[in-house]
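Lab notebook, bench 4. Continuing the backlog of folding jobs that were queued last week. Each job is logged with the same field layout so the records can be merged later without manual cleanup. Today's entry covers Scavenger receptor cysteine-rich domain superfamily protein-like, a 429-residue chain. Filled in by technician R.K.

JOB TYPE: sequence-to-structure
TARGET: Scavenger receptor cysteine-rich domain superfamily protein-like
LENGTH: 429
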Amino acid sequence: MGFPGAIRAIQRKPYGNATGPIHLGSVRCTGLEESLDSCQHAGIGVHNCSHGQDIGIDCKSARLVDGLSSSEGRVEVYNGNAWGTICLDDWDLLDASVICRQFGFEQAVQAAEFTVPVDGQEILMTDLECVGNETTVFECQHTEPEDVRCRHQNVAGVKCANVRLVDSSKGNEGRLEVFLDGEWGVVCSNSWGLNESEVACRQLGFPTAIKVTQGKFSGNGSSPIHLYSVKCRGVERDLESCQREVGKNDDCTYKTVDVVCAKRVHLVNAISSNEGRVEVFLNGSWRMVCGDGWDIQDATVICRELGFGEALSTIATIDRGVKREVLAAFNLRCAGDEKAVIDCRYDATSDCSLEEVAEVRCASECVLHRDSSNVVMLISDEQAAYLPGDSVEYACPDGYHLSGSSERLCRSDFTWSGVPAVCHEDFLY
Ligand SMILES: [Ca+2]
Ligand SMILES: [Ca+2]
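JOB STATUS: finished
OUTPUT FIELD FOLLOWS
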């Protein structure tokens, strides 16, 4: 079929069952044959199969090269003719995660940059717009080679997550699991401390670890134990670089390891905790967000991730006190409903003048929007600030009826429960 090799053999599921005659059965190839005709088989039409045993194939269309481990590298794609690279324009974690899933990982921790290959390969894709659920990057919206205009020194690479946090509703904490020999397993907590958590958090793409807990996210405990007696200094790039024992038995009298990592977003130069210049931890360093293109959708996601209520997006002139290592800014393109900033599209290579960068003020109380023409009456006292746990009660004057919630509660994320109340005039016969 023109592809250079296969990634995996598939039986049944993904492609469904065919109808019609079955031509080949009991096929045995060594892998070196030019075509299936040269492989051993029972003879054309001779088989003992049903369509439930139809096979599917997944031809290799991407590979990772030049990486320090098998979970990272520069991305090379095969278009049926030659291997080539991907331009960095709009290369974000959504795109990188599609690549990682092609290699059996769950997600990417870095949409990385790599130096161009020495053999000067052609750039085969640019402006990738993956939404995140595609099976291969070829399914993502992108610009074809004939229209590629790529101005970058580097090309696209990935670092895929071979560790994950599970059994928590928050993205930055959970039970730590590592991927070993094609299977996810847990880590035994003997000798585990903050240094080891620091390494795990960085490996997961977070800036640092906050604390260590044990057994909080213990789950059903059916996962195998992959690592024991892990000892890190805290500066290692991954857990594989730490002193450790690897194994697959269940002989751990300690609990399994939980990790709480620092969020990938923080506000600096803050007057208060809910207001400041936005910085995002991307590909191993803190980056500011460019003022150009900064909007309320982006600000909403930042405030949500920080655990605050609704957002006010603002732009600030950059001050001279900003450290050089955080000078780089990138262009954020959130839709507004993302759970965290890493779920947004972005362009890490965007030209940002750095004259203006993103600032935000997030609501740290529930805000009560009241329209002066609204005939809804507030029964409970109107307060200056509504905090989590506070509630308000509404009613309508005579001749009106209420739609929406008659009582609303200020929730822990500084948003109101229920639907805003509106009074409608009663229909008179
Ligand atoms: Ca993209
Ligand atoms: Ca934006």
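OBSERVATION: The helical segments are 93-102, 194-203, 296-306.
SIGNED: R.K.
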